[in-house]
Automatic annotation (TrEMBL):
Pfam families: GCS2. GO terms for molecular function: ATP binding; glutamate-cysteine ligase activity. It is an enzyme of class 6 (ligase). It comes from Micromonospora yangpuensis. This is Putative glutamate--cysteine ligase 2. Its EC number is 6.3.2.2. Residues 1-23 are annotated as: Disordered.
């Protein structure tokens, strides 16, 4: 929902010629939940926390839609190590600011503990959204991760959107990090996804004929009343309205920096693979829209620990098999960007410890207390990520 933050806006997001090959820039936005440190319930504390953020970082920290949310944005870069550093610094500073304000910050898809829904941030655009859409506000805070990857021009960007759409459900499953809501296990790995779909403009990206078709659809959706403006185009992948990037926005916010870096590396490799196919004249697969909807629902329900829909055949397969197939497809692009070893190490950690949803459920299974889940997520949010080549995970 929010625009990209200060430093991210100042840098050029696109492709850079390095070592004889085009390398794509990548930047990350993360949204977090502010909660009471004792009860774990969401609290309307964004103004208090913003006051405590160090002045030199305020250009990379923003309010989000609800007063229980706060957002950070990394500057775009060519190296995953720079994304790791930026997110690590910002998360630690935000956790300290929240602590000084008397609250906790959680990298979690939505609030697990029952409590009042905090009000929306006082902003004219948000006021208009509430006036138009009324009770669609999804719970105590709906927190996602958005990955921006530079593309050379909008026409190429639209082609990239067509190429990546069959692969987004499995990335959706990898990011699942919200199994609890209102004090209960929802039965979904990503309850945020289910709440988010209450907004009428949330959907898988449709098949696009051209950039002109993309623009025409936006105008028609605004005229229909389901969107106030282009900023409410909540497709799972879209062109940024302000920057020369493709924006992938299907996932829950990741619990750790390691998880976020993994998704950033995979998304960039997915876009690079699409651009390689476009340059070679290989057409995108026009996946049936309804099957794509089913695949995203299954990803939200099962996460990576269950099953997913193979969009090539329509068959249901173990989600890890689908993820491994995606990684195999992306290996050349990962190697091109120098990310293969780092991403491989992070996948090893994910394989051992599971998605954020699996980790939350494991804590609850041990203690039976959602306050312990909240405490564990808070620790993961703040935690300093380790060198992925050491095959260790931040929660070890």
């Amino acid at each position: 929902m929010a625009a990209m933050t200060g430093q991210l806006a100042e840098a050029t997001a696109g492709t850079t010629e390095t070592g004889g090959s085009d390398r794509l820039t990548v930047g990350v936005e993360e949204e977090f939940l502010l909660v009471d440190p004792h009860t774990g319930a969401a609290v309307p504390a964004v103004d208090l926390v913003m006051e405590q953020v160090p002045a030199e970082l305020r250009g990379q920290v923003e309010r989000e839609f609800q007063t229980s949310q706060i957002e950070i944005g990394s500057p775009p870069g060519l190296e995953l190590s720079s994304i790791r550093h930026s997110l690590g610094v910002l998360r630690a500073a935000l956790a300290d600011a929240a602590e000084r304000a008397g609250v906790r910050v959680l990298a979690i898809g939505t609030g697990p503990v029952d409590g009042p829904i905090p009000p929306v941030v006082d902003k004219p655009r948000f006021d208009r959204m509430i006036e138009r859409f009324r009770l669609l506000v999804p719970g105590p805070g709906n927190n996602g991760m958005h990955v921006h990857v530079g593309v050379p021009d909008p026409d190429t960007g639209v082609q990239v959107l067509n190429h990546v759409r069959p692969w987004l459900p499995i990335l959706h499953a990898v990011t699942a990090n919200s199994p609890f809501s209102q004090g209960e296990d929802t039965g979904y790995a990503s309850w945020r996804s289910i709440e988010w779909e209450r907004w009428p403009s949330v959907a898988p990206t449709p098949w696009l004929e051209s950039y002109e078709h993309y623009g025409r659809l936006i105008r028609q959706l605004i005229d229909s009343g389901v969107m106030l403006d282009e900023g409410m185009l909540y497709w799972y992948a879209r062109l940024s309205a302000k920057y020369p990037t493709v924006e992938i926005r299907i996932g829950d916010v990741c619990p750790t920096v390691d998880d976020a870096v993994l998704i950033a590396g995979l998304v960039r490799a997915l876009v690079q693979t699409a651009m390689t196919d476009i340059a070679a004249g290989r057409p995108a697969v026009n996946t049936d829209h309804h099957l794509l909807v089913a695949a995203h629902w299954r990803a939200a329900h099962d996460g990576l620990e269950g099953s997913g829909v193979d969009l090539a055949t329509g068959a249901v397969r173990p989600a890890w098999e689908l993820f491994d197939a995606l990684v195999d497809r992306l290996r050349p692009a990962l190697a091109q960007h120098g990310d293969l070893d780092q991403v491989t190490g992070l996948i090893d950690g994910l394989r051992r410890h599971g998605t954020g949803a699996a980790r939350q459920r494991a804590v609850f299974a041990r203690t039976g207390r959602l306050t312990d889940v909240v405490a564990d997520v808070a620790q993961q949010t703040r935690g300093t990520a380790v060198d992925p080549t050491a095959r260790q995970h931040v929660t070890d």
